[in-house]
């Protein structure tokens, strides 16, 4: 979609810079996702639902704090960070215009990855938010409203990432951790209980 806009080269250059910065920063929150997933799985398996809930809250708070710091830095340096990649005045100005959307994406991406690791059916939410809401909204804002690359990015951020974050947050808040811990404990007992038939065969 961006490559079909007027001044496509300029739009793609600016979008690539913003996506690169967002991707670098996102690696921090994917680390929180992995750490939270392991801790939550261990605590659920041990039947400690309160520890599971606490671990999720702590991980979310730390991830959001880091995201907020990077968001503020992006806003403060909105005219300068593009110099890392280019010396083109046109590209730098285009990135400057996109910097506030980038800051919003960074803040949302500090929340969404941690929430993503806590849901078994997040793929369906992801598909719905990005392809049913985000992509059509990006097309409307970018082409019909003639906002160009800003409209495309805005549509994907607000229609996709923001909606997905809200839905996952609601699911997390309403999640019954005690019930999940009971299920996990039952599965752990099932697979850890010795099979009498296997013991007989080993004895023979």
UniProtKB/TrEMBL annotation:
The UniProt entry, under PANTHER family, shows:
MULTIDRUG RESISTANCE PROTEIN
Q: Where is this region: Disordered?
A: 184-204
Q: Where are the transmembrane segments?
A: 12-34, 54-77, 98-115, 121-140, 147-173
Record key words, sorted: Membrane, Transmembrane, Transmembrane helix
Q: What is this protein called?
A: Protein DETOXIFICATION 27-like
- InterPro entries recorded for this chain? MATE_fam
The residue ranges flagged as biased composition, category Polar residues, are 192-204
Entry GO terms, CC: membrane
Please report which protein family the annotation says this sequence is part of: Belongs to the multi antimicrobial extrusion (MATE) (TC 2.A.66.1) family.
Q: Name one GO molecular function term.
A: xenobiotic transmembrane transporter activity
Coiled coil regions, renumbered to chain: none
